[in-house]
Amino acid sequence: DLDTLRHPARRLLRQYKHRGAPVILKTSPWTQGRIQAAMARGSHSSASAHLDFLRDEFTDMVNQAQWLVLPYSDVKHLPGLRISPMGVVPQHERRPRTIVDYSFYGLNDETVPIAPLDAMQFGNMLPRLVRHLVLADPRHGPTKLIKVDIADGFYRISIRPSDVPKLGVVYPGYPGEPPLVAFPITLPMGWTNSPP
């Protein structure tokens, strides 16, 4: 309950909950020519080599309300539209991993870094955890630990709806299909402001 939560990020979390995470860029919107050139270039060859995997992956993500996949002809005039390439990273003895290269056309560099950097504290996790264990109040009994892995953690925070077109991605299709664009409606992996 964000109304009673006592946490330094309370205001930010309320904003994300009610309005979505903003995508603020330093540069002007793309021209139609630049958008068309990005669509013509398409995705990385790794995406084309994993079409069946991507179809299954995006079916799941669309069903979980994390992404939308729409015909390019229906979205090419959306305000703020930008198109980035998609790729797939093979994993040894694991399923492949979908990536979006938001650095390819400079989108990550053009992103205003408004996410709080102190939210990313993985590097100091062990010392902080040990400190909490040492300082735990013994009146509450023995300390217990639990590790919880939130699957697709980035995909738990919505993007501000008006900013969704800024994170568009070429979705590779099978021969004969119309050109498609995928849009994250939750924070995507690969965008510089997603992890915090």
Q: Can you walk me through this structure?
A:
The protein has helices spanning 10-19, 32-41, 45-48, 51-63, 72-75, 107-110, 125-135, and strands spanning 67-71, 83-84, 86-91, 94-100, 168-171, 180-184. By secondary structure, it is an alpha+beta fold. 22% of the residues are buried.
Number of helices in the DSSP assignment: 7
Largest sheet: 4 strands, mixed
Termini separation comes to 20 Å
List segments where confidence is low: pLDDT < 50 over at least 5 consecutive residues: none
Q: Label the structural class.
A: alpha+beta
Question: What best-fitting shape do the alpha-carbon axes yield?
Answer: globular
Strand content is 5-15%
The radius of gyration is: 20 Å
- Mean pLDDT over the residues: 89
Oligomer: single chain
The main sheet orders its strands as 1-6-5-2
Task: Compose a concise summary of this entry.
The protein contains 7 helices and 6 strands, in the order H-H-H-H-E-H-E-E-E-H-H-E-E. With 196 residues, it is an alpha+beta fold. The strands form 2 sheets. Strands 1-6-5-2 form a 4-stranded mixed beta sheet.
Describe this protein with a few key phrases:
196 residues; alpha+beta; 4-stranded mixed beta sheet; two-stranded antiparallel sheet; 6 strands; 15% strand
Topology:
Blueprint: H1 10-19, H2 32-41, H3 45-48, H4 51-63, E1 67-71, H5 72-75, E2 83-84, E3 86-91, E4 94-100, H6 107-110, H7 125-135, E5 168-171, E6 180-184
Parallel strand pairs: 2-5
Antiparallel strand pairs: 1-6, 3-4, 5-6
